[in-house]
Amino acid sequence: QQQPNTRFCLEKTRERTMLRTSMIAARRALSTTTKAELPKLAYAYDALQPVLAAELMELHHSKHHATYVANLNAALDKQAELEKKGDVAGIIALQPAIKFNGGGHVNHTIFWSNLAPVGQGGTPSAALSAAIDKRWGSMDAFQTDFANKALAIQ
To answer: Do the beta carbons of residue 89 and residue 79 sit within 8 Å?
Structure first.
C-alpha cells in the first residue's frame, strides 16, 4: 500500500498531466488554419484627403498594419510548432506577441472600416443618436470620451 504523501504526489502529477493535455487539446480546437490577412481598403489611399494624406494612409496600411499581420502569422506558426512539441511553457511565453500583434491587426481593421471619404460617412441612425445623447449628452461628448478611452488601449 502506498504512503499517503506518495499517493498525494501521484494524484497531483496526474492532475497536471490531464491539465496539460486539456490545454493542448483546447489550443488545437481553437487554433485556426487560415492566416491573418491585410484587409483591402474600401477606398483609395488618397480618398481621405485633405483630412489624411495619401502618403500617410499608404504607410499606415501597407507597412504598419502589414507588420502586425506578418508578426501575428509568425507567432501563430511558432505556436503551432510548440503545440506539436507539447511545449506549454513556450506557448504561454508566446501569448504576449499574439495578443499584441493580434490586437494591432484587429484594431487597425476596425479603424479602416470606420473611415470614409468626406461626404460619404453618413450619420448614426435615430436610435443610435438617441442612445448616444442619453449616455453622453451629445455626439461631441461621445467622440471626446471615445477618443480618450481609445488612446489607453495601446
So the answer is: no
Cell of 85: 512539441
Residue 9, SS3?
helix
pLDDT per residue as tens, the chain (154 positions) = 545 555 555 555 555 655 565 555 445 444 555 899 999 999 999 999 988 999 999 999 999 999 999 999 999 999 999 999 999 999 999 999 999 999 999 999 999 988 999 888 778 889 999 999 999 999 999 989 988 888 877 5
Q: Would you say 139 and 106 are in contact if contact means Cβ atoms under 8 Å apart?
A: no
- Among residues 52, 63, 58, the alpha carbon closest in space to that of 117 is found at 52
